[in-house]
Protein 1
Amino acid sequence: MATDNDLDPTPAPAHLIPAPVRTGGEGRCGFVFDPSTAITAAPGTETTERWLRTTLGAAFGLPLAPGANAEGGEPVANGERATNTVRLALDPALEPEGYRLSTGTGTGVEITGGSPAGVFWGAQTLRQLLGPESFRRAPVRPGARRAIPFTDIEDSPRFPWRGMMLDVARHFMAKDDVLRYLDLLAAHKLNVFHFHLTDDQGWRIEIKRFPRLTEIGSWRSRTKHGHRASELWDETPHGGYYTQDDIREIVAYAAERHIRVVPEIDIPGHSQAAIAAYPELGNADVVDTAALTVWDTWGINANVLAPTDNTLRFFEGVLEEVLGLFPAATSPFIHIGGDECRKEQWKESPVAQARIEEFGLANEDELQSWIIRHFDAWLTARGRRLIGWDEILEGGLPAGAAVSSWRGYGGGVAAAEAGHDVVMCPEQHVYLDHRQHGGPDEPMPIGFVRTLEDVYRFEPVPAGLSAEAARHILGTQANVWTEVMQNRARVDYQVFPRLAAFAEVAWSPLPASAERDFADFERRMATHYARLDALGVDYRPPSGPLPRQQRPGVLGRPIDGTPPNV
Ligand code: ACM
């Protein structure tokens, strides 16, 4: 099979990332991918069939025609196609997102998944086995034949929630770049896209019944350049939003890649853009909300929502449209934020104080909790689940609500021990906006130094958690806040290569020693960098930022003597 001298490239070590649970038989050539290669797809595997044809077909210039048993029957015995076929099938005996990939059967490649998603993750492994060129969009050596090693892989993820949060509010990311990020998540077997759509600095989703949210709320006249302590401003107006059709396209694109989307509408803090659009949403009895504009700098903002019936009805209206755009099947969770809600205005506001008295609440924390409970009941009645940042624990949390634990492990531990589902995303470990090296050349460095190795060694389930509570850790998520990321290249730089390490944390089993082997991961990264190059990802090179990736003179944090998390 592998005797032709045009065979290229020679099977190399697979260097799979994330590492599979079990790999057998690597070494000699097991399969050649060439113009005669066909795909046979059993019912239920059509998303993977389409993805293979559009992605690998484009990379290699191959038709990947439907095979003889495209209707789901048995392959033609001893036929030309039967020995050169990618066969996709389901086996419910496997883990739901698990798969088996085998090239040793003499009939081509078999990918069998426990569900359509499992088959898709198997196809991601096949792409890695085919070499870095399979990550390009057009063939660089048309006609070359690709061999993949003889291999037999059994694999399934450690966690069902393997996510990345992207903040498109601080800096808008064009729809095409969002779709590209969904492809990048899929390439790393990540299956949750947390879409941070609203914040003080911009409202990014079209809401038909409240057009000013995007007419006014999606634009700001200028932007702080660097950390909020920087004196630099970018005077270029910034903004943008996704139309409802853009959102539908993003959701469908994610679903085709077995990625769930978690839309976030952040309330009652982080709401200045909404208040700038509709001043009655703010605490107009204590501040002149009509004078507020979309915020142009960074930090924790005092302008929070007023706890009025009008505000509740307004956000019910917003969420009705959100539920229509993000169907329950692929968006069972709706994120309502709940983080960093400053309480000064509620303390001063007669309207807020009257609410506290009306509902017999003890204080402003309980007022926030009352708002969260309202939307928890509202979402639950519509078949969805509420998830929020760990501040939603303060003042009490409704039974079915889930928590994104960001201020450390503590909130997540408390929530899990109380029986709530938890996504672990502590800022001390997996905030990819934080600098990845302590050197002077890091662009706009903020927060903790968290290297590739630090992220690789992150453990989502803290020691000491009871077995019962550990079952409530749905998984983990890396968060990408974009205050100092003005464009896609800046996002790429912060996210990669660390997202590759994070993907392994989320997917691959923890070794019995509880110590991950970073040296082995680094060896595999040598190949993974070539994949990222082929994908056009503007990652941080191991040797440090390229000159064009540096931002000399733009202030970050910490500066001399400042603690890392200020
Ligand atoms: C957050 O980082 N404010 C959730």
Protein 2
Amino acid sequence: MSAGACLWFTGLSGSGKTTTAEALLPMLEQRGRTVTMLDGDVVRTHLSRGLGFSREDRDENVRRVGYVAAEIVRHGGLVVCALVSPYRATRDEVRAMVDAAGGPGSFIEIHVDTPLEEVIARDVKGLYAAGTKQMTGLSDPYEPPLTPELTLETVERTVAQNAQQVLDYLVGRGLL
Ligand code: ADP
């Protein structure tokens, strides 16, 4: 059985987490892996329906996704999570949970490091212009990872280049 792994994309809203993850999925499937995608926006319509954007609710959302991810990894599966997940301590809790389930190194933190000015200019979901309350990067904090396994840059690098970078990392780690 292949080793399990959790690819955890974190970054500001509009940074490119979903776009990069969706480019990566077919590349993983081409290599014979099935993949579960847990996308923040989708998860909030079922697993975390009703949760808001207070620190408590954001943390609860991240922990629920982390719990599911850990179960997938425990059974040797590959899971791709794309959540703003702004709080470092909560991401680290999930890291510990996933690594406990799948073994050290199972949790792969990928920081989609797009500058705030750029995500505001993109404003994919119209959230920045709408003056959304509790907006990460504006009124709410974003705590970047200190030692992520990977950092992706989306202004100078294309989606395809970034997806390839993640794939190369996984191959280098012997996970594919
Ligand atoms: P998130 O999931 O982080 O909220 P999305 O993936 O939904 O962000 O949106 C990112 C937006 O930025 C998309 O409209 C995408 O087309 C655009 N974009 C431009 N350049 C890049 C890049 N290099 N990588 C990822 N997204 C990019």
